[in-house]
Amino acid sequence: MIPINHRGSLSTAGIVALQGRHDEAIEVLREAAKLNPTDEEIRERLFDVYFAQSDLAGMQEAYEASCREHGFEPGMTQLPPKDAATTMFVADDVDKAWDEIGEYILHDVKMYGDWNPGDETTASISHAQTVEELRATSPAHKIYSTEEAVEMVRNGIPLMLMPLCGGIPPEIAWPYVEHVANVVLPAAQG
Questions:
Q1: pLDDT tens, position by position, 126-151
Q2: Do 18 and 102 belong together in one domain?
């Protein structure tokens, strides 16, 4: 069993799953579900990392000030620009992948777009109405070729994988995750 703490449990499970150790990943998640953090641990978790959906002016400063006001040093932040890819998939055949999962991704896009009418600052928001429009216009929702993904990893760009985006069934999503684990990561390291 892999030792975990409440803050690292989900990322640990993701790393273990990507390494092909699926039974261990499930066990990590089960152990994390048993944790009962104290109020102090919950407060610490809230200030430990800040993942925003925009890089609007003043957000970083507001986060840092709030951390310090509550007695914590600021943690890692992610403030993606509007043109950042926030939902990524990797496939050998990008066209086939769009055919297979494009409608699911579009469903996700439409739901978030409906909840955020007129939002032009959030990185993950698109107002596309068709898969073709989404593919052509959204910098946030991307299906990269294996070669593109390998180059991204080699350049230190994280792959923001969202395998269950828009309700993609696990049996469809899992091969995309395995492709990254079994093809992209070894090629990037080699």
A1: 889 999 999 999 988 999 999 999 99
A2: no
Q: What is the model's pTM?
A: 0.69
Residues 30-76 have pLDDT tens digits of: 555 555 666 666 556 666 777 777 777 888 888 788 878 877 788 87
Q: Cα separation of 156 and 112, whole Å? A: 29
Tokens of 86: 């926030």
Q: Which H or E run contains 142?
A: strand 141-145
Q: Is residue 146 part of a domain?
A: yes
* Structure confidence by residue, pLDDT tens digits, 80-125: 777 888 899 999 999 999 999 999 999 999 988 788 777 777 777 8
DSSP 69-99: HTT----EEE---TT---EEEEES-HHHHHH
Q: Domain check: are 177 and 101 in the same one?
A: yes
* Domain contains 3: no
**Helices and strands, counts by H and E, the chain:** 9, 4
Query: 38: domain range?
Result: 9-78
Last residue in a domain, options 36, 52, 78: 78
Q: How many CA atoms lie within 13 A of 146 on its CB side?
A: 15
Overall number of domains in the chain: 2
Same domain, residue pair 129 and 74: no
